[in-house]
Amino acid sequence: MKRYFSIAGILLAAFAANAQQGTITYTKTVKFEIQLPPEMQAQAANFPKEQKSEFELLFNADKTLFRPLVQNSGDMTIDNGDGMVIKMIAPGANDLGYCDLGANKRLDKRELGVKEYVVEDTLEKANWKLTGESKVILGHNCKKATTHKTQKSIIMDDAGGKMEQKVITDTLDVTAWYAEDMHTQASPEYAGNLPGTVLELHIGDMFYTATKVDAKCDVKAIAPPKGKKITKEQFRKEQDAFFKKMEEQNQQGPPPGHGPKGN
């Protein structure tokens, strides 16, 4: 009796057998929602609705490294042509995250303005609900899990006819799709949380979507970021000071020579 085998099935089986290490490429999409005053509605088309960047996740049996594929500026400047210039900052465009699953530890290189910090913390845990729903992503059978997350966000607000950035605290819906046949608990975020490797992750208006899964991995590159370490609480204080400074700068208005144009 002749037997026929699918090449794709053989390759997928080979990856599953070697799923203790690999490289996953993700597209990270951050969606924006900017509320404009009535007199600026005509300029709405000039404002971006989202920002995309590419990352890769390197992993072995007990360690992971999440890093940008290219250096991203993370900033967008919008000029409406009438003298109003708005600078939008999308934090995290160049963040690098290293996780040691066995030691329950993570080190994150974080950018804040022109400064870089290495934040040391334990792995973030969440109260996941395993829904039982499933779908196939890049040939891998994935299961769905959901939870919630609280974090600070920056919004644009029209305060008395003047656009300002404000910091608010949001409770975000989180959805993860993890591959059951990839047994390492790797993920762009929430590493070590789920019984498989996360190929899609939605956190509020931020989306990580895997576009490629490769069994090859530069294992030597999976190393903690270098720099002076600070705690998560210390970094939070640095964030608060940074956001406060931004608000003060917005209240001062544009520098000389950048006011509204005359007729």
* Record field, number of beta strands: 14
Question: Could you estimate the helical fraction of the residues in percent?
Answer: 10-25%
Shape: globular
End-to-end span in angstroms? 86 Å
Radius of gyration: 22 Å
Summary keywords:
263 residues, mainly beta, twelve-stranded mixed sheet, two-stranded antiparallel sheet, 2 helices, 14 strands, globular, disordered N terminus, disordered C terminus
Describe this structure in words.
The structure is a single chain. With 263 residues, this protein is mainly beta. 12% of the residues lie in helices and 47% in strands. It has a 12-stranded mixed beta sheet with strand order 9-10-11-12-13-1-2-3-6-7-8-14, with helices on one face. Strand 6 and strand 7 (105-112) form a beta hairpin. The model is unreliable at 1-18 and 255-263 (pLDDT under 50).
